[in-house]
Amino acid sequence: MVGCEVENNDNDINYDSNWETLPAPVAPDTMIKHDDVFFVNEQKGWLVTRNGQIYNTIDGGESWGLQFEDDIYWRCVGFADELHGWAGNKLGDDGKLLYQTNDGGESWTESSFGWHVNRIRFLSGQLGYASGQTVYKYFSD
Question: Cα–Cα distances in Å, from 67 out to 63, 108, 114?
Fold first, then answer.
């Protein structure tokens, strides 16, 4: 278990102790950390790394498979549903600023929206927001 000890005089639950380490791919020493993770439900999620990998899980993070790899500093990942998602690149290497998938991450292609997108969050399958050079809104009927 991963957690922080928190003093609380009211004997409330220490939520930090509810976190656990999952068997995700370990970030390389030179990269120190992963940059973002996004789940569309309790089982299906994606993880992006700053050394160019996109991983996915279909079992709540108990196992991860490499879905895509390129020479890109991935900064963020977000999905509207299990099929439609986007991954943003911090540096915009060679013009590759944002990628999208329409098949759950089996294939990724360059997207034409956004500049230096570093955060993508969805409130529902129809409404999402992204931040980068400015703020972007995704809306679908």
Answer: 13, 9, 23
